[in-house]
Amino acid sequence: MINARQLEVLTTVIEVGTTLRAAELLGVSQPAVSNMIRHTEDLIGITLFERAKGRLVPTKEARLIAQEAQHLFMQQKRVSRIVREIREGSRGSLTIAASPSLGLGLVPRVIGEFATGAPQLRVSLELGSIDVICDMLASGQADIGFALTQPRHPAVSHEAVGAGEMVCVCPPGHPFARMRRIGVADLNQVPHISYSAATPLGQMIDRVFAEKGLERRYAFEVRHTATALEMVAAGLGVALVDSFGLIGRRADNLERVAVEPSMPIRINAMMPRLFPTSSLAISFLDRFRTVTGAAG
From CA 49, how far away is CA 43, in angstroms rounded? Predict the structure, then answer.
């Protein structure tokens, strides 16, 4: 059976193209790498490389094996990290994946509170779509994720940890700023910044408009709340955004107005089903619930 060292040699040679360079990276001699490749081919009965102009060209079979090996290497790294966290206690690391609307405001605020008093704690924050977040969790690249969209990935579990709503934001001095509440129909009467219909929030807003017998009309299309807020601050129009995107932002260049009908939204915390949840991830989730005021 092929072992981890043989897989490491195989993937390194594929990456660099020569046994000489692979030997340098692996800290062994070139003959040792060549012998390992030949031994592996004899062991599994498959040709792994063809020679072309002094370089080793991996066969289709070799690339397939190397691709699968990457999952093994990722698991090994995760195990090593878990051992390190157990040994070092608070000197562990935590990788968080979040949607941009949460990752540009609320999540950094929680990280700031969570990391207080733990100078050796290393936190990595990655932003992405719900699909990216789920892929990171399922592959072990992230410990915990946060998004407004409910995940539908079999390898990812989720729970609601915070409640908010869609709100209208406008520049100071805009006619909407003098109103306590606006209707969704009012948005069609002014320059309007809105989410793409391909986004979950855009689809939710379209359903609300459709229930009112309306078609959403807007001048500027965005995919992320942060982009919409910057455009509003620049005076390009008003926008209907999730309330979580306003956390941590300056209040002097944006006015917030309630919207009728109300459009409640929830934060979903996500964890991988295939890997044990680290103690750091559990502690971070507890702090997140405290900050959002959710009971769990």
Answer: 14
C-alpha to C-alpha distance for 275 and 213, rounded to whole angstroms: 46
Least confident of 67-76, 106-115, 134-143: 67-76
- Residue pLDDT, tens place only, 25-41: 889 999 999 999 999 99
CA dihedral 18, 21, 27, 28 (to 10 degrees): 40
Q: How far is 233 from 260, CA to CA, in rounded Å?
A: 23
CATH code of the region 163-265: 3.40.190.10
**CATH fold for the domain made of 4-84:** Arc Repressor Mutant, subunit A (1.10.10)
Is the overall model pTM greater than 0.70, yes or no?
no
Tell me the three state secondary structure of residue 165: strand
More confident residue, 28 or 253: 28
User: Which residue's structure tokens are 């807007």?
Assistant: 218
Q: Domains of the chain: which residue ranges?
A: 4-84, 91-161+266-292, 163-265
Report how far residue 144's alpha carbon sits from residue 279's, in angstroms, rounded to the nearest whole number: 11
> Is the CATH number of domain 91-161+266-292 1.10.10.60?
no
Tell me what the mean pLDDT of segment 167-192 comes to: 95
Q: How far apart are CA 158 and CA 33, in angstroms?
A: 45
